[in-house]
Give the backbone structure.
Amino acid sequence: MNRDQLLTRLADITPPPAPDWTPWLLGGGTALAALVILAGTAWWLRHRPARTPPAPAAQALARLDELETRWRKGEVPHREAAYRLATLLRLGLGRIALTAAAPPAGAAAEPWRQTLLQLDTARYHPSPPALPAEVFAHARRYLQATDRATTQPAPAAPRSGSG
């Protein structure tokens, strides 16, 4: 066989097609899009404004309203209401314990002592008298004063220097 005959026999053979890059391009594009979404989400989580939980006094005020409503309906007995009210005061005022020696800021000492005495009597007396409704009003006043004090912005520091 001569060279021309060999070449004519090879003429019907076609080279293989070029590799198909479509799956690689689709996979790479998907991975790149996922990376961009992930980076954007991470950036948003880092730079979003922080949600501050409500102040303890504000939470205690909301629960105080609920407790007083249930107490007035008779769903909560006097002793249990006194325990819950003392807990709300303690947590709302940010205290470890309620003491007569340390009234909340802006509260007169004598009404504070009377409120604690009424709560202690309702909680610890063997046959406690009915819890007076004024205890709820005093507690609300103490919590509102604390809530106002904690939610007011701090005064700006005076600037020093010549102007």
Remarks:
- The CA atoms of residues 79 and 123 lie 5 Å apart.
- DSSP finds six helices and no strands in the chain.
